[in-house]
Amino acid sequence: MKNLAWTACLIALCMAKVSLLWIIWCCVVGALALIGAARVFWCWRNRVGHEG
């Protein structure tokens, strides 16, 4: 029974680690997407400003 408890604990820790990594990965991708969108907007705004 003790072995089963250790196995369940390890599985729970692994699932927590995977979910934490998934959340961090989503935050990193989201931040990079926002930075990219800001750069595109900045370039577009500067291009439009110089035409007229």
Explained architecture:
- The chain has 52 residues and is mostly helical.
- 96% of the residues lie in helices and 0% in strands.
- It is built from one helix and no strands.
- The N and C termini lie far apart (77 Å).
List descriptors.
mainly alpha; 0% strand
Structure, briefly:
This protein is 96% helix and 0% strand.
Helices, by number, come to 1
- Secondary-structure-based class equals mainly alpha
Distance between the first and last residues' Cα? 77 Å
Share of residues in strands: under 5%
Describe the SSE topology.
Elements: H1 2-51
